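Changelog note: in this version the structure field was regenerated for every chain. One regenerated record is shown below for reference.
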Amino acid sequence: MHVDVIEGFDALKGVRDDWEAVYAADPEASLFMSWRWMADWLAARPTVWLVLAAKASPTNDRYVAFLPLRMRVHFDKERGFVNELYLAGGGYADYAGLLARPDVEAAAISAFTDHLRKKLNWARLTLENLRMSERRRRLFLAAFDERRFVHTDIGYVDKVAGTDHSICPAIALPSDWDAYLETLSANNRQKIRRWLRKAEASEDYEITLSDSETYARDIDMLMGLWKSKWGRRKGARTDDLVRCNRAMLTRAARNGTLFLPVFRHAGRPVAALAILVDPVKKAMLFVITGRDESYDEAPAGYLLHAFSIRHAIAQGLATYDFLRGDEPYKYLFAPRDDRLRACSVATRSGENLGGALDPRCLERMRDMAINLEKKTDIAAAERAHRQILTIRPDDAMTLYRLGRLLAARAEHVEAARLLARSTAIDPAGDNAWLKLAHSLHALGDDTAALAACRQVVRLQPANEEAKRLIVQLALSGRRGPAVVFGGDDGSAPIWAQPGATAWSLPRPAVALARP
């Protein structure tokens, strides 16, 4: 089986038809693996992402399996940068995993794991919120032998509340409401009937469904109630969680997959449920609730779940999924438990497979290296810059920043080589020209230093530091080789010779002219 790497939203749109066909055929798929959800989520949280797409052969034009991934990079003092892969839906969607047609799942999983081991560079693969049959999970993990890899299960028990968020209660719905009620305890059955009749007959109680005219208002109300209950518990994460959930619910409302019932008492909204509807898998997935904790005249949340389950049955849906968490109230509705099988796979060495970094994270690596400089962790910053140059030797900014660090330590031989290379790649880098001038002056090559200063003034006429250095160089009376690489006799100055330092770089494409 052949694996392609899908990157970029145009390419993702190009595989939509195949993705949706596989999604419909895969009995383990959930809404969080649908094309629409995944595309929206990847756009909402911009990160480095890629999708492994499998097909029968390179010439086949139909994909039969997909594994969506994100990638990030970490830095530690012992190893420097290392890459981590994780499931693209994990961390926000309650369920994450892969998609495959049932008849090719074994071959597709083998192709994916081969690609992961042999063609991607990473030190850890985190399978967060993994919802996958034990059969598929064994096939997947068997590819990562315990001689080279460490397998670690991921737990989700809330240490404060004791809730186990790896347990996922869901109801397999019958085709008839009364048949469903018969699965409940007699007391619970009577309570649901009584409260639904009361809500429908009373002028004070009202259950309404959000529509295109009201969903924005109702989402804001729900999130406001949620924040009032959970804000203190969630702390600094609260506003980000509110923003993400509001955006997710708004997208769902726009694409017609949001079911949002609101319970009101005398016109006052006291509870709301946000439920996603999956018409392909015929499922309702309860995502989030908001409830006025000061209201106790009716079991508002309980009543809304009963109302929603009845609606799901009337619509011919097959599943009412409470998603993650074994909170006691969910078991009033007689669900059965499924369980997430989250885990991570890490290299025993702690280093990337293949001993290389993935260039997809280059921008983030640059930012992290600069932050290390700002924290004055110079040794770590130097290591970070050098690692970046192993995957992008011609990165002008990194050449400049590493050269600047070395110049500050008076290591001018290597600094001059790096800075000269930076200016050759990016002749508009006035800061690199200026640092190069200082290093050349320190090395006694005042002719080249003067030429570098003149480049600074040409780019930045108001640069007073360069002007002062020009005057200083003009009065110094020292003269070195006439050009940066090579003197009049064709020889290179000591700082430009490959044997001068362990750090070897190609010669620049341009040289400084004789002033």
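Spot check on this record: The longest strand covers residues 63-76. The mean pLDDT is 91.
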